[in-house]
Amino acid sequence: MWAYPLIAWGTSLPHVRDIFFDEFYAELERVAASIARDEEDVETPPALREEARRRWRPYVPDPEDRGGVLISVDGGVQVSNFAYGGFVAAGRACAVVCWPGRDRAIEKRVKIYVEEVYDERDRGFIPGYVRMISEYDVARAAAERVLGEGAQPLVLLDGSLYFSRFPYAIREYQHHPELLAELFTSIAALHRLGMERGFPVVAVSKDSTVFYLYMALLKEAATRAGLGRLTEQIERATSPLDLRLKMVKWPPEDREAMRPLLEERPLCDTALIRASAKEEGYTQPLMLAPSIYFGRDDAPALYRRIKENLDAETANRVIRALQDFFSHPGVAVTYWKPTRKARPFRVDISAAALGYTEPWGRREGNMFVEWDRDLSRLEAVLNHLGYWFCNEVEYNVPLMQADMIARFDRTLYRTKYEPFIISRLKRAGLDITGRRRTLRKGG
């Protein structure tokens, strides 16, 4: 006889009791009590607060001085997994073109990738590539449409313009080289169009957790503290967490000298700015170097490995796409507060929009944009973002609309799109066999 006559195996029925709830509640209480014990009684200011303030510019957005036609871009992706490695990723994206005084126009793109995928890492990475290709392609099409009507676009994507995880592994280039070549080409094409026609490419992130600004400020703080000898080691670390791991091998006196500059708990860039800047404004833009390893001859070592592992024709095609990708001037990042009470947003902007023309592949380290450089185009972007800002959640109305249109609901995909995909691929001669988990009743 079961202790609980009505039990739930992953059900959502309200009248069925979940047999794990008592254990769940007890564990939650234990975790909450542990967090409460660890909380400090007094909130201390960030160690890098003064460094952050030096890189902060108060600025109130001027909605009347924005110019250009806003193009908001977002996308979605869904996947199908079949037996014996069968894999499909279907991405879609839309661009909402906000013409002043006119009805909004919409551009749409769809990208479908079909292949046998055996590595679980690739099953995680490939959908992101498919989505990005859709987004960059539709953004370029919308920008060309606006340019064709004699106006200047401002392309705004949701998220980031920067590769937080650049595909280094040669395994990826062996498995899906054509997809990567298409990805690099799509990104480069939009940036090149923006550079040639003089419009900015921008991305906004509401919940970024990177440490680009933090590590740049930490290096400055170390120099001001007379620890210039440690800046090279700081530059090699990607985050304060990574730096602490490297510090284990430092001489004891260097570890002690560095300790006052580090937070007890890591502060990502947005958390640092939230604790340091109280008024509206933005941080001095930080030019980001591409996260790629270079060989001794200053040519990406990745090119050599691609040539060694791929056939000549495919290798040349991928390398040309990579060279195209690294030929545009790159990306800068700033952190922006639209109002005094708002949390900071991360804003990425194409370096070409700030007047840079040097190829990105030549940049070997992050560097701040000079304050005396003309930042009017960045401020015009912030004016646009400020004009459309309404609250912390619906922070950009056109971007929210693009998200609502492009969002790929799982139920919609499984009931409408996936059956068409399976039927058409079978007619094309592909062996589509469902996984046991999918075929199992209730699975």
Protein traits:
single chain, 443 residues, alpha+beta, 3 domains, 11-stranded mixed β-sheet, 16 helices, 11 strands, 43% helix, globular, disordered N terminus
β-strand number: 11
The sequence of SSEs as H and E is HHEEEEHEHHEHHHHHEEHHEEEHHHH
Terminal Cα separation, in Å?
Answer: 26 Å
Portion in helices: 40-55%
The major beta sheet can be summarized as: 11 strands, mixed
Please give the count of helices. Answer: 16
Notes on the protein architecture:
The chain has helices at 21-38, 49-54, 120-148, 170-175, 177-197, 212-224, 231-236, 240-247, 252-258, 269-276, 301-309, 312-327, 376-388, 397-406, 410-427, 436-439, and strands at residues 56-58, 69-81, 86-98, 105-116, 153-158, 201-205, 281-283, 286-288, 331-337, 345-350, 367-368. The protein is globular and about 70 Å long. It has 16 helices and 11 strands. α5 packs parallel to α12 and α11 runs antiparallel to α12. β3 (86-98) and β4 (105-116) form a beta hairpin. It has 443 residues and is α+β, with helices and mostly antiparallel strands. Strands 1, 2, 3, 4, 5, 6, 7, 8, 9, 10 and 11 form an 11-stranded mixed sheet that branches. The longest helix is centred in the N-terminal third of the chain and has 29 residues, at 120-148. 43% of the residues lie in helices and 16% in strands. The protein has 3 domains: 1-39; 58-210 and 268-411, no CATH class; 212-261, no CATH class.
